[in-house]
Amino acid sequence: MKVGFPHMGNLYIPFSALLEGLGCEVVIPPRPTKWSIQLGAKYSPEFVCLPYKANLGDLINALKLGADTLVSVGGSWVCRFGYYGRLHHETLWDLGYKFESIIVQKDGVREIFERVKEMQGSTGKAIYSGMYAIRMGWSKSSLVDKVERLARSVRPYEVEKGETVRVLNEALRMIYNAKSLKEVRLVSKKVNEKFQSIKKDKSKEALRLKLVGETHVLLEPAVNFDIERRLGEMGVYVDPSLTVHRWLIHPFHLGIRGKEGEVEAKRFAEPYLARCVGGEEQLSIGYTVLAGMEGYDGVIQVLPFTCMGENIAREILPRVSKIYGIPVMSLSIDEHTGVTGVTTRLEAFIDLLKERRTRRLGDCKGIGV
Amino acid sequence: MKIGIARGLLFYRYYPFWTTFFEELGIEVVVSPETTKSILEDGLRMAVDEICLPVKTFHGHIKYLIDKVDYVFLPRIVSVEPKRYKRYTCPKFIGLPDMIRGAFDDLPGVIEVEVDLMKEPMIRSYKKLGNKLGYNKSKVENALTKASATQSTYERLILKAKYPDEAQVGSNISKFQLRQDNSNRKDNGNLGVTVALVSHPYILFDYYISGGILWKLCELKVKVITSFSFPRRLIEQEMSKYKEVSWGYEREIIGSISYYLRTGSVDGIIYLVSFGCGPGSIVREIILREIEGSSCVPFLTLIMDEHTGESGILTRIEAFLDTIRMRKR
Fold first, then answer.
1. Is the pLDDT of residue A279 over 60?
2. Number of residue pairs across A and B with CB atoms under 8 Å?
């Protein structure tokens, strides 16, 4: 069984560890590119959002690389995303590809287990290998999260531009190649040293930005023009409201409580958006409020063109921005968005924020604080 | 006390209930007029540019009402079916009051009601609203009984393929008039061609958003059946194969199209969808799949946005009708 799945940031690392642990062969499609997205868009409904097109392109690439089983996330709630897996698979069948379809949803876990049992022969073996695979996936996912966090904190201060990215990619490769839990632990130690060895200029003053928005666009660097790296290399510390790890553990409601957790963010969002309307829009608003209270310099909201939930948030955010005195920029992305336009807007926004920070500091000195 | 109700979105479904309820409580109800160019332009200015046209227009209606009323009525309709179905409306209906609050700085008071049948029956939500507005229990209950009666009469009349303005129930609804006289909507003998016009009522019955397609079809002597008057029972029957579609109002659209395709009881189907309609993008993909495996009933999709011109629509429906007539010959 050769399994293929669409990309979302570094999700492929823990996910392939999980699937390999279950005894599947994994086919990882190349990272989404302009061409793969356009390939997906060719077979997509007219005004569906970008994640649909990007994921469809990935799946086609996976099939071309020989995948015979496709895994997608599904469900049926308010957001369109729940239907994407099913429609993708139907579209691909219509195109003449032959493959098995697995839609992971609440009751899909059972189906996966059944398949594993089939492969392993007995229930006992299946449970054992299943547990080990889940532990592998979990430890890799949390390590990826840690590495990304390290990169984020180091990047604005790096002396040699691009060094962090190099170290980050190396670390991700090591995590991907780790074959056992023991190896993952070893990598974890090595990674710390590697990031410490990056030359840093701590005298730089980095702006602090919160990044909020729709899950896929927020997490997939190929779609959001690698906004984290781009901003980091402009000397900005970026803190996204969601990471792949947190997205993975979200259904189990782990790590979402406490200060700065999702529950807290939702509580702050409620006066502005009383109900969840399908996606992460309550978090977008809540984290903007939190960013305002914690003295961040600004917030960037990224969303796919015609996204339902985030567009509702986008209409509410100016009000939040006014009340909490925090600048917010919304960046709407689809397959026609050009990199130059995005860079120009980011640069302009950063310039404004820098100006604003200097002025605020000046004000403080004036009062004599 | 004056309360303003915007003529947009779910207004076309629930206006008898809303107006009767408030009027029985002794509140003066102001309904915004038919969409005009200036209302639409106000809406375009106020709303986010990527949202669908009906929501933008709704903003325009609110803008019209702002300086004329003490309160605007903003319903939050989360779900209109009981919990076991797990069905929602569109996200934009769920976030509507919050969106309007975000867009307007100078809103008068807001009267908000949350209807979520997964949580509690609709009557209880409105009872809470009545009590919150400071009316005593018996008055609220009395108003609710009358409102529900009006609403069910309305729904019954709609099922008889009447249009919202013809289905006038009670004297207080006379405010509601669709544009133009409806003399040419009467069935005058054998019309030859029957067309199913499938869309949300807030597109169908809004002359400006739909480009007047309903009226144009009637002028062209075509018998029109709208998806709005499609029986609920048949929808559920048709939709048993699409259990996972959880948007209540979209089920109506897929269900009716699937029925017409299967039975071939109409000569053609016209599906109207506004650009940027979230569920619409998925629904259309499902419908296109449905068409492939069915008897051939001519099908036309018209995508509306604020740049759609009336003459463009007329050309397309005329061409579509020609196709139908050629096939029939």
1. yes
2. 106
